[in-house]
Amino acid sequence: MNGKKHGKGIYHYQSGGKYKGEWLNDKKHGYGVIDYANGDRYEGTWKNGERSDHGIYEYSNGDVYDGEWKRDLKEGHGKLEMATGDKYEGEWEGGKKNGSGTYEFT
Predict the structure, then answer these.
(1) What is the pTM (predicted TM-score) of this model?
(2) Is 87 left (phi over 0), alpha (psi -120 to 50) or beta?
(3) Residue 106 burial (CB < 10 Å; 0-12/13-18/19+)?
(4) Secondary structure E strands in 1-106
């Protein structure tokens, strides 16, 4: 496709990260897994190069977010389990906790 990434494949970034998944018009699109150079990892759906719909983001510090994404930000319902043992499950908007939810402290 005119030298653009399209279909399924693996891409190694110069930074040390790696993406394995689907491409459309040179952008991550569909299901894919990215391992970032800093140790973070995202597995889920992509749309036009951005995290979208549902995905799981594992932070290198041990925190894990499992939930909805929109335009590369946490958006909708999601659950964040922190390495400290604290948990939040509820609504997110623009990448931040917003709306109704439950926060459990350890």
Answers:
(1) 0.95
(2) beta
(3) exposed
(4) 7-12, 18-24, 27-35, 41-47, 50-58, 64-70, 73-81, 87-93, 96-104
In 3-state terms, what secondary structure has residue 47? Answer: strand
- Give the position of tokens 């990892």: 41
In a domain, 95, yes or no: yes
Q: According to the model, what pLDDT value does residue 17 have? A: 97
Range of the domain at 12: 7-104
91 with 79: CB under 8 angstroms?
A: no
Selection from 57, 59, 28, 63 nearest residue 42 by Cα: 57
Domain count of the fold of the chain: 1
Token reading at 76: 């909708």
pLDDT in tens, 4-63: 999 999 999 999 999 999 999 999 999 999 999 999 999 999 999 999 999 999 999 999
